[in-house]
Amino acid sequence: MKLLVTGGAGFIGSNFIRFMLKRYDDVEIVNFDALTYAGNLENLAGIEDEKRYAFVRGDITARADLDAIFDASPFDAVLNFAAETHVDRSLVDAGPFVSTNVAGTQALIDAVQQHAVPRLVQVSTDEVYGTLGPDGRFTETTPLQPNNPYSASKAGGDCLVRAAVRCHGLDAVITRCSNNFGPYQFPEKLIPLIIANALEDKDLPVYGDGMQIRDWIYVEDHCAGIDCVMRNGIAGEVYNIGGSYDVPNLEIVKTILRLLDKPESLITFVTDRPGHDRRYAIDSSRIEQELGWQPAHTFDAAIQDTIDWYRANPDWVAHTRSGEYVAYYEKMYAGR
Ligand code: NAD
Ligand code: DAU
Predict the structure, then answer these.
(1) Which residues lie with the beta carbon below 6 Å from any ligand 2 atom?
(2) What are the tens digits of pLDDT across the range 80-138?
(3) Which residue, of 61, 153, 264, 309, is most buried by count of CB atoms within 10 Å of its CB?
(4) Among candidate residues 260, 283, 134, the one with its CA nearest the CA of residue 200
């Protein structure tokens, strides 16, 4: 089976490539990635020489790049991880989000159709559903009500996939997952940022009152869910994927401090994110009951493994927190 993974140099894409090459002997993967600030070939260190793996630099918004990769060899499936992914950046400049997550998704759909690829997996997010009140969980029939430019652009991509399914018979499935954590996550996101700052005894910025709730899933469980949907999902359908570990951000931060043996005095409450969604929680019963997927990791074990990974990889952490990241951090957090 030959797969094209877009965005495979990012956090989840790189974990997916590692997961698939380890799980299956008959899988070949081409990683197609534009290498934005979030794309990092160090995330794939150790597998560059693997015969079943190849990297091609390319942009999903560029039809010439897409045609070149599809002309080079046939694929059994395309998995679209490529995206602009950070909500806070989308609040500063939505342009790249619309370009990659909306126009790029359409360009990929067009290329997949023209090159008759049997299946497209659109990797999406629970954020397209907007925010929950105190009760209930997102199901696949929850209306799309995105509340920030990132989630609006992801909802746009999902709608374009849906339209291609209905109008042109595209074979596509959409996954909508909750908040991932694990190795190789860019330290702009909550968990790696808190771990990296705490290791350096720096302030830990918590937005607003810290009582916003996210539903955390270990990245490898998300990868297994995507594999399951790619192989067994019904064309045109949506599958939610979640970890069923929904707790307030402040609890996550305090857990990390406890495991690192660092003081809670590092916590610094800062101005809230505009339009901040209050609560996410996923109902994964569809993928569990229809496709037989279950998360295999507990939060407690996975957060310990994640902390151990960041501790064991100081060079990766130092590299990702240099260059553009320094200016980003200053702009995002100074005087907040
Ligand atoms: P990431 O920001 O770590 O990586 C994104 C990757 O996409 C990078 O390697 C980047 O270089 C690449 N990319 C960006 N624009 C591109 C373009 N125009 N052409 C080709 N490559 C491009 O993101 P992630 O956290 O790994 O997320 C991957 C996917 O999973 C995204 O679609 C995201 O919406 C979705 N998702 C993420 C989470 C999460 O918690 N991180 C949860 C649910 C869904
Ligand atoms: O739900 C899935 C989504 O999860 C993905 O689609 C997104 O790509 C991914 O970035 C993530 O979005 P969030 O906005 O939920 O993740 P983030 O890690 O940015 O923030 C998690 C929570 O922590 C959120 O409530 C904001 C808060 N936060 C975040 C940062 C970076 C803080 O309190 N302080 C921070 O410094």
Answers:
(1) 85-87, 125-127, 178-179, 189-190, 193, 205-207, 212, 214, 249, 273, 280
(2) 999 999 999 999 999 999 999 999 999 999 999 999 999 999 999 999 999 999 999 99
(3) 153
(4) 260
| Ligand 1 pocket at CB < 6 A | 6-7, 9-13, 33-36, 38-39, 59-61, 81-83, 85, 100, 104, 123, 125, 154, 177, 179-180, 186
pTM higher than 0.90 for the full model? yes
Q: Catalytic amino acids? A: 126-127, 150
Domain boundaries, the chain: 2-180+218-242+279-297
- From 12, 181, 218, 249, the mutation candidate for ligand 1 (largest count of ligand atoms within 8 A of CB) is 12
CATH fold for domain 2-180+218-242+279-297? Rossmann fold (3.40.50)
Mutation choice for ligand 1 from 81, 127, 252, 316, CB with most ligand atoms inside 8 A: 81
Tell me, what DSSP letter sits at residue 74?
Answer: -
Q: pLDDT below 50 — which residues of the chain?
A: none
The C-alpha atoms of residue 108 and residue 247 are separated, in whole angstroms, by: 36
| Residue 177 pLDDT | 98
Residue with CA nearest ligand 2 atom 10: 86
Supply the angle between the helices 105-114 and 63-72 in degrees, to the nearest 10. 30
Residue type at 135 in one-letter notation: D
Distance from residue 71's CA to the centre of ligand 1 (Å): 24
CB-count exposure of residue 141 (10 Å: 0-12, 13-18, 19+)? exposed
Mean pLDDT across the chain, nearest whole number?
A: 98
pLDDT score of 243: 97
